[in-house]
Amino acid sequence: MKPMKFGIGQAVKRVEDARLITGHGQYTADYLPTGTLAAVFLRSPHAHARFTVSDTSAAKSMPGVRLIATAADVAHLGDLPCVAALGNSDGSKMPLPPYPVLAKDEVLHVGDAVAMVVAETEAQAREAADAIEIDWEPLAAVIEMTDAIAPGAASVWRQAAGNIAYDAHMGDKAKTDAAFSKAAQVVSLQVVNNRLIANYMEPRAAIGEYDAASGRYTLTVASQGVHGLRDILSKQILKVPPENLRVVTPDVGGGFGTKAFMYREYPLVLDAARQVGAPVRWVSDRSEHFIGDAQGRDNLTTAEMALDKNGRFLAMRVDILGNLGAYLSQFAPYIPWLGATMATGTYDIPVLHARVRGIYTHTLPVDAYRGAGRPEAAYVLERLVDQCARQIGMPREELRAKNFVKSTQMPYKTITDRTYDVGDFEGAMRKSLANAGYFDFDRRIDESKRRGKVRGIGFASYIECTAWGDGEEGSVKLEPDGTFTVLIGTQSNGQGHATAYAQVVSQHLDVPLERIRVIQGDSDRIPTGHGTGGSRSIPIGAAMLARASEKLSVQLKELAADKLEAAAADLEIADGRVRIAGTDRSISFEEIAKLPGATPEKLKAVDEFVPPTATYPNGTHVCELEIDPDTGVTEILRYGVCDDFGFTLNPLLLAGQVHGGVAQGIGQALYERTVYSEDGQLLTASFMDYCMPRAADIPEFHFETCNVPSTTNPLGLKGAGEAGSIAACPTVMNAVVDALHRAYGIDHIDMPATPSRVFAAVQQARH
Q1: Close Cβ partners of 211 (under 8 Å, ≥ 6 residues apart)
Q2: Contact criterion met (CB below 8 Å) for 264 and 113
Q3: Do 279 and 36 meet the contact criterion of CB atoms below 8 Å apart?
Q4: CB count, 10 Å around CB of 659?
Q5: Is the pLDDT of residue 352 over 80?
Q6: pLDDT at 634 over 80
Q7: Residue 130, H or E segment
Q8: How far apart are CA 646 and CA 527, in angstroms?
Q9: Would you place residue 3 in the very low, low, confident or very high pLDDT band (cuts 50, 70, 90)?
Q10: How high is the pLDDT of residue 342?
């Protein structure tokens, strides 16, 4: 591909940053139509209770109150759908309990919404919400998954016996059992993948508007894609034609998967706007985010590996319990199953049996969070492989090298029906270890000992599936002033789409990025789209825009040919102009846009890219750290990355994505944990109690790529947005365990490895 000044492969700084960091961003909460009313939600203080709204009259008569809605008032609205139901192993379908927009008669988690109040000001709405009289009858609650499936546990849903939402199996149990029976060594491990709270910078918000004359609704909302929300809202909840609903998403301050879903507040502000005849605005505060937004992870997994006498992996068993919470959020059942499809990771494991059970508890719903199942799978596998190496006495890197899928085996079909097209897993590992000084590590242990610290080094090799499923259709258009407009149905949540997509257009039209405007987040202006998630936006969106830009360049040459009195084949695009190759005769894009034959159809190119299958980014991360045994405090000293993303569109954007993902992984490994009391109260409901990593907790990164271009993507791209969060947890925890095992013989500790947990483990080992 020819290098272009602003094109693909260039380390161009983000064009959107100047606007955002100078306060000129436009977020959902910044939108305030004339006459807007404020909505607040009354939420349950109990994890499980029957209730009756006994009196709303006092609240309705309070100053400024325009509407109070309970379940009976919104019975015409449909339930929130789960779109990722799974089948059970016996062939039956999993039941889908209702997820109403407001709870009726019974609440199932703290924060369950029972009423909406709309008033002229937020203060008035909150005061009225406090005045609503509710009779509560608290019931037994079940919080932990192991308790939920125990005999006699409190029931979340009558349709789900034993609180099991589904019980699904993958692989061949008989062959797996046979392989284990012949194994020279069997290694087992049980790990917790702790529940997380997403904590993006911008809490959710939504503004509903209704035009009585046209019967059209408009929802302004921070989302990860407007079209999916539009279709679910219109068809399943509001029950109106899709053309009667416009969904708009302005700037978004972080999503991590959690802003992709349908939430109760969205249809409710729209219905309220219709009822009161004015825009209705709801803005979550951080406290409401903690008890109102879908949470992430929360798996308990038991894994076993069968090995022969030479350390070859023969078979693997996996038993996954995935906490789904009290309701089925949009994609929730699929997430643990998706993780199971990546259970064998980078290794040539010929036989597998996995059991996956989704479990109901009286907690907030759980759904996709950055990586969505793949971080859980990589964590289990890489912790298990390290355990195998310790148990059989083989160096960690040599055990991996012995069992990696080899480049010569590509394309390689896993036992879980994934097909890896390309990759050099051992090469990435060797390079990453060399960069990290892995083989000189022992010399640094003594330095730590002199200061009373223990030092460890750990690494993890990962692979993930990205950018599969639906394609993207979009367009590139030449405007009369010579600028270009891109319409695309993905949605930036801070990843830098405006820069990346503009680079693709610039590659083919050779114009500065500031002359390319990227528009996302408007279901009226953009006909179709499948949003952002699963690291799909750049691999799919950029491939589509490359096709559209190339098509438009041909069309513009054809328009310019008559004016330049030359054949289109003799023309080239350079410096924002079309010129006769080898001459100084040229015409600007602005002039082309004004030519007599420049019809709208010729000034616009529409194209589509549908991925034939997933792409498979992979790599190895290495972490070196120190632990103070007297306090349990862990300090990361070095963190190195060698990743294969196929092809790098923009090195700066790529590094930012990896750094951010690793920071989230470090947070999960060392700091973050969602804690409920036995009766279902969220004990970590603020930043006073839920520990987030700070800048001082994040090390400098060594980041490089060892790219092998994807054969399933026309640009060779592989998804990159989730990779850091997938690799970081096992990398950091393997380093923690390495340090503790070298010093005290400790071979297991669960995330998060907080100072109190580490200190307790050290004290127990010492005594």
Answers
A1: 217, 218
A2: yes
A3: yes
A4: 16
A5: yes
A6: yes
A7: helix 122-131
A8: 30
A9: confident
A10: 98
Q: How many whole angstroms separate alpha carbon 228 and alpha carbon 157?
A: 28
pLDDT of residue 632: 98
In 681-759, where do the E strands start and end?
Answer: 701-705
pLDDT at 4: 78
To the nearest whole percent, how much of the chain has pLDDT over 90? 99
Pairing of strands 185-193, 245-248: unpaired
Q: Give the right CATH number for 386-467+613-766 from 2.60.120.10, 3.30.450.150, 3.30.365.10, 3.40.50.300.
A: 3.30.365.10
Domain ranges in the chain with CATH number 3.30.365.10: 386-467+613-766, 469-515+527-609
Structural contact between residues 371 and 296, judged by C-beta atoms closer than 8 angstroms: no
For residue 262, with 0-12 CB atoms within 10 Å meaning exposed, 13-18 middle and 19 or more buried, which class applies? buried
Q: Are 544 and 471 in contact (CB under 8 A)?
A: yes
Instruction: Return the closest-CA partner of residue 572 out of 562, 559, 586.
Output: 586
Q: What is the largest CA-CA distance in the chain?
A: 90
DSSP for 347-383, written as a single string: B----EEEEEEEEE-SS--B---TTTTHHHHHHHHHH
b/e map 574-608, b = 16+ CB within 10 Å: eebbbbbeeeeebbebebbbebeebeeebbbbbbe
Q: Tell me how far apart the alpha carbons of residues 621 and 658 are, in angstroms, rounded to a whole number.
A: 11
DSSP summary character for residue 27? B
Q: State mean pLDDT over 614-643.
A: 98
Q: What is each CA distance from 659 to 163, 199, 656, 699, 701, in whole angstroms?
A: 38, 17, 5, 10, 7
Omega prior to 714 cis, within 30 of 0: no
Q: How confident is the model at residue 669 (pLDDT cuts 50, 70, 90)?
A: very high
Structure confidence by residue, pLDDT tens digits, 198-246: 999 999 999 999 999 999 999 999 999 999 999 999 999 999 999 999 9
DSSP states of 573-617 as a string? EETTEEEETTSS-EEEHHHHHTSTT--TTTTEEEEEE--SS-B--
Q: Which amino acid is at 491?
A: Q
The count of other CB atoms within 10 Å of the CB of residue 16 is 18
With CA atoms as reference, report the closest residue to 301 among 281, 317, 280: 317
Q: Which helix (H) or strand (E) holds 426?
A: helix 425-435
* pLDDT (tens digit per residue) in 235-288: 999 999 999 999 999 999 999 999 999 999 999 999 999 999 999 999 999 999
Tell me: pLDDT of 1 over 80: no
Reference 546, options 608, 639, 601, 499; nearest CA is 608
Structural tokens at position 30: 């910044």
Q: Token pair of 313, please?
A: 């992996």
Measured CA to CA, the distance from residue 126 to residue 384 in angstroms comes to 50
Q: If we measure between CA atoms, which residue out of 81, 41, 38, 29 comes closest to residue 220? A: 29
Q: Which helix (H) or strand (E) holds 441?
A: helix 441-450
Which residues lie below 8 Å from residue 87, measured CB to CB, with a gap of 6+?
Answer: 93, 94, 166, 168
343 contacts 382 by C-beta, under 8 angstroms: no
Q: How far apart are CA 98 and CA 468, in angstroms?
A: 29
Phi-psi region of 274 (alpha: psi -120 to 50; beta: other; left: phi over 0): alpha
pLDDT value for 147 = 98
The C-alpha atoms of residue 497 and residue 537 are separated, in whole angstroms, by 8
pLDDT higher than 90, residue 6: no
Predicted model pTM: 0.97
Buried b / exposed e over 420-431, threshold 16 CB at 10 Å, is bbbbbbbbbbbb
- Nearest Cα to Cα of residue 322 among 164, 546, 147, 126: 164
> Which DSSP letter does residue 676 get?
B
Classify domain 469-515+527-609 at the CATH topology level. Aldehyde Oxidoreductase; domain 4 (3.30.365)
**Tell me, what's the pLDDT at 58?**
95
Cα–Cα nearest to 400, from 646, 93, 142, 622? 622
